[in-house]
Amino acid sequence: MTGTHPLILAGSAAETTRLVAYWILAVMSVAAAVCMVLARRAVHCAMLLAVVMLSLACYYAMLGAPFLAFVQIIVYTGAVLMLFLFVLMIVGISAADSIIETIRGQRMWAALAGIAMLVLLSLVVGNAVIGPAAPNSAKFSNGNVTALANLIFTRYLYPFEIISALLIVAAIGAMVLAHRERTTPKPTQRELAAHRIASGRPTPLPGPGTYAQHNGADMPALLPDGSQSELSVSPVLSGRAGETPRELPGATAVSPPPQQTAGSVAGPTSGGGQEAGEQ
Amino acid sequence: MTGSVHAALVPHAAAIASLHATGIQDAAGLLLAFPLLGAAILLLGGKRTNSWGHLVGVAMPVLAFAYGLAAFVQMLGYPAAQRSRELILYQFINVGRFQIPMGLRLDQLSICFVLLITGVGSLIHIFAVGYMSHDPERRRFFGYMNLFLAAMLLLVLANNYLGLYAGWEGVGLASYLLIGFWQYKPAAAVAAKKAFIANRVGDAGLSLAIMLMFAQFGSVTFTGVFGAVHSASHGIVLAIGLLLLLGACGKSAQVPLQSWLLDAMEGPTPVSALIHAATMVTAGVYLIVRSAPIFDLSPGARLAVAIVGAVTLLWGAIIGCAKDDVKKALAGSTMSQIGYMMLAAGLGPAGYVFAIAHLLAHGFFKAGLFLGAGSVKHEMNDEVDMRRFGGLAIAMPITFVTFTLAYLAIIGVPPFSGFFTKDPIIDAAFAHGGTSGALLGTAALLGAGITAFYMTRVMLMTFFGERRWDENVHPHEAPPIMTAPMIVLAIGSVGAGGFLILANRLLNFLGPVTGVPPVLRGIWTPVGGASLGLVVVGAAIAWVLYGRREVPVTAPAGNLVTVAARKDLYGDAINEGLLMRPGQWLTRLSVYFDNRGVDGLVNTVAAAFGGSSGRMRKVQTGFVRSYALSMLVGAVLLVGTFLLVRL
Amino acid sequence: MVSPAHFIALAVILFVIGAVGVLVRRNAIVVFMCVELMLNACNLAFVAFARMHGALDGQVIAFFVMVVAAAEVVVGLAILTAIFRARRSASVDDANLMKY
After folding, report:
1. CB neighbourhood size of A226 (10 A)
2. Does B618 contact chain A (CB < 8 Å)?
3. Stated pTM of the model
4. Distance of CA B197 to CAs B126, B201, B202, B307, Å?
C-alpha cells in the first residue's frame, strides 16, 4: 500500500521482518519476565520489567498503535517504573528475598495453578476465532492520534472524565498516605546548630573514598592509620544484604557503622566483619 | 310416710321430671354457702382466727344440718310424685350449643345424703374439737373439713354430672389436704399423694363418661341424660356404665383402685371417720345409684358393678383380719362394707334401696367405730397397735359401750342396724338368680362371717384381756366433748337400720327415684338365718383365737394368708409391678433417649459445626500470598467453567 | 506471517508469568511489579484485538488501562511507604495479622 507511514512496513519483506522482530522480541520479553520473577534483588526486577515494557512498546508500534507505543515508553516505562525505583530507594534495597519459601506448598501450588492457567487460557485462545489483522488504514498509522481522540472525546467521554477524576483522587490519596506528621515542632536552624555543637562532632561527615581504581559511593574512605572510616559510607549503601564490605587490600575489616551516633571513629575495630543488614 | 309399696310410679320417671323448688327449698344454695363460708373464714383468716376458729368450724355444719332438716320437712309435705325439686344457681357454661346451668336438685336421694353428711358431719366436727384440742393447727383442720363438707354437698346436690364432677374433685382435694394434714410426717405426705393419684385414675373414668354423655346426648344434666339414654346404642351405654364404675372404684376404694384407703388412715381420726367411712367413700355408691337409669339399660355394666362389689367385700374383709393397727382394720372393714353397697347397687332396682339403707346405717356405726378408735388412740398417747391395747373396757367405759353397740350393728346381730340392712343385700344377691346370683350371694354370705371374725378380733384385742399397755400410758375416759357425739352415733347404730327398713319406710321414700324391688321378702328369711349362723361361727372362732389365748405383744409370723393380708393382699405390689415399674422404665428410657438421642443429635450438630469451622478457619493463614493463590485457583476454575460451557 | 494470534499467545504467557510471580515473591514492590506485568499483558491483548477488529476501541481501552495502572501504582506505593515506615519491613508475609 502506498502512502503509509515509514514505520509501517509493507510487503513480504516487511512480513519477514515482522516475523523476525516478533520472535526476537518475544523471546527477549519472556526471558526477561521469567528472570524478573526469579531475580533476588529488587532493582534487577525493575530493570527486567523495563525490558519487557520496552519490547511491548515495539509490539504496539507493530500492531498499528504508534500513539500507544510512545505513551508506553513515556508514561509506563518512564514514569511508572521510575516511580517504582524511587520507592525502592526509599524503602530500602537492603532486603533481598531469600530463596526459602515460608508457606508450605505455596510454590507447588503456584506452579500448578500457573500451568493450569496457561493450559486453559491457551485452550480459550485456541478456540476463539482470531482472524487476520484488519487491512491497514489511516487510523492505524498516520491518523492514529486523530482517530483515538475522536473516540475518546465522543464515545468514551464518560470514562475519560471519570478517569480524570480518578487521577486527581489518586494524587491526593498518595499525598495523604505518604504524609508524615510532625510530632515535634520543626527544629529551627539555631536548634540544629546547637545540637550539632553539643554532639561533639561539629564537622560534616567524611565523604566516600573514590580513587582511580574505584568509582563507587560505597567505597569507604581511609583514615590516616590505614583503617576504613565507617562514617564515610552512607548507611543505606553499607546496609546492603549479602555484601561484604568492600575492602582495600591491606585495610582492616570494618564493623557495621552505628546509626549516626557520636562514637569514636579511630581505633582498630575488633571482631570479624559481620554480615551487614537484614537477611 | 305416704304411699305403699305398690304406689311406685314408672321407675325413674321422677328421676327425669323435676319441678322447680319453692319456699325454703329455694334457698338450697345455703347448704353450700355455710360450709364454704366457714372454710373461707378459717383458711383466709389465718392465725387471727385461731382462738375461735373451731367454733365457726362446728357452727357451719350444724347450720347446714338445720337447713337440711327444714328442707326435708318441707319435702315430706309434698306428694310422692312431686318431691324432686330443682333450682338453678347460675349459668355455668354458656357457649353456643354447650349450655350447663349450675343447679341443685333436692330429691329424696339427695336429701338422704344431705342429712347424713351434715348430721354425722356435725357430730364428728364436735368430736374433733376435743380430739384436736392439742394441735396448734386446729383452725386449718376445720377449714379443710368445712371445705370437704361444701364439696361433698355439691356432689350430692348437683343436678348435672359436671357439678357432680366438681364436687367429686373437691372432695378429692379435701381428702388429700386432710390425709396429709400433718405434713411433716413423710408417711402422711406419701399417703395423701397415693390417695390423690388413685382417685385421679378413677376421675379419668368419670370425666370420660361425662364427655361421652355430652357427645351422645348433648347434655350433662340428669334430666337431659336420663331422658335421652334410651336412644343410645348398647355399646355406648355399656361404655358409660363401665366408666362410671371406674370413677366409683376410685372414690370408694373398690378393687382395682383400693390401695389408697388403708394408707389414708395416716390422717387424723375425725378425717378417717368422716371422709373415709361415712361420706366420701360412699360417693361412688351415690354415683351408681343416681345413674340408675343408665345402669338399668346395661346388664353388662350392672354385672360388672356387682362383681366389683363382691370381690371387694371379700378383699377388704381378708385384709381386715390381719391388721394390728386398729384404724387400718376398720379401714379394711369400710372397704368391705362399701363392697356390700356396690354389690347391692349392681343388682338393679332390687338392690338400690338396700344399698342406700346400708349406706346410711353404715354412716352411723362406722363413724361410731372410728370415733371410738380415735378416743382410744387419744387416750393411749396416739398408739394404734392393738397388740398394745387390752383391758380397756374398764378404763374407758363410755367408749366401750358405744363401740360395742356399733360392733353389734356391723356384724349384723338383730335388732341392731346391720341386721336389717345387710341381710336384704345377701337376699337380693341370691334372688338375682343363675350362677352369678349364687356366686355373689355366697361371697356376701362368707363376707358376713369374716366380718364377724375380724370385728370380734378388734373388740377382744382392744377392750378385753390383759393390759398390754406401755409404761407411761394411763387411759381414762375421753372428755364429754368427745363422748357426746359417740353416744349419739351409738343411738343411730342401734336404731337406724331398723328405722329405715321396717315398715318399708326407706323403700317408700326412695322408691320414686330408684325403683323398688320386684319381690320383697320379710325380715326373717332362710338366707338371713344362714348369715346369722355364719356370724356366730365367725365370732366364736375369733373368741377362740383371741379371747381365750393370750395376745402376743409382737405380731407372730402368720400363715400364708395372714402374710398376704398384712401386705394388703399384695395390692401395692401389683400396682408397683404393673404400673410403677413400667412407668419408671419408660421415664428412664425417655431420659436416656433425650440425653443420648436428642441431646446427642443437637450436640453432634453443634460439634460438627464447631469442628468444621475450627478446621476451616485454618484456611485463613493471614498471608497475602495464600489469598492470592486462592484467587488464582478460583480464576482458573472460572476459566475452566467458561470453557466447558462454551465448548 | 504474524497474526494477532501470536500476540495473544504472548500476552497469555506474560500474564501467567506475572500471576505466578505475584504468588512467589515476598518483596512487596516486586509483587507490584508482577502485577504491572499482568496489566501490560492485558494491554497487549487489547491492542492485538483492536488490530484484528479494525477498530480503535481496543486501543482506547488499553490507554485507559494505562492511566488506571498509573494511578494504582501511585496509591499502592504510597501505601507501601506508609506501611514500611510503620513496620520497617517490606515483606508481604509480615502483614499477617489476619491470621486465624
Report:
1. 11
2. no
3. 0.65
4. 30, 6, 9, 24
